[in-house]
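Lecture 7 notes: from sequence to structure.

We start with a single chain of 161 residues. Read the sequence below before looking at the structure.
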Amino acid sequence: MKNHTNRRIIRAAIFCLLALAIPSALFVLRAADKPAPGADKPAPAAASAPQLAKDMMGTWVLVGKPGKVAEPPAAGGRLKFRTGHHWTMTQANPDTGLTIMHDGGTYTLEGDKYVETIEYANPSTANDIGKSFMFTVKVEGDTMTQTGVGNPYTEVWKRLK
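Now the structure, written as C-alpha cells:
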C-alpha cells in the first residue's frame, strides 16, 4: 500500500509540474513570435540626440576636480546616474553603507551648456530643492568634466563599467 501511495504522490507532482510548465512554455513560444512592444514606433529622441548627450548617459563616480583627479574609491564614493532627461546623485558612507547624500531631478543640455534642476533631496541638501545649476560639460573617453558656471561645483567624473 505504501508504494501505491508514493506512486500517486509522484504522479500528482508530475501532473502539477506539467500543468504549470506547458502553459508557460506555450506563452514563451507565443511571445517570441510577436514583435516587442513599441517595435512599430519610431526610435526615441535619445537615438537622435547629439553625441555629447549620449556620452553623458550612464553611471559616473566623482574622482576630483580638474588638476586634482584621483582613482575612483574602492567603496562608497559619490555616484551620478543620468538618463535622457533625469539625473540622480547619491553617496554612501563606505564603512556603514548608510546614505549620506541623495538628490536628483531633471536636466537640459544645449550644446555643451548643461543645467541640472534639483527636484528631490535628502535632509542634507534639501535647501537646494527647486534650484538649478549651470555647467559647461565635456566628455573625453571615460572622463566627464562639469565646470560650474556661477556656482562652485567644478567636478571630474569617471564612467563606471
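The chain has two domains: 1-41, 45-159. Keep this in mind for problem set 3.
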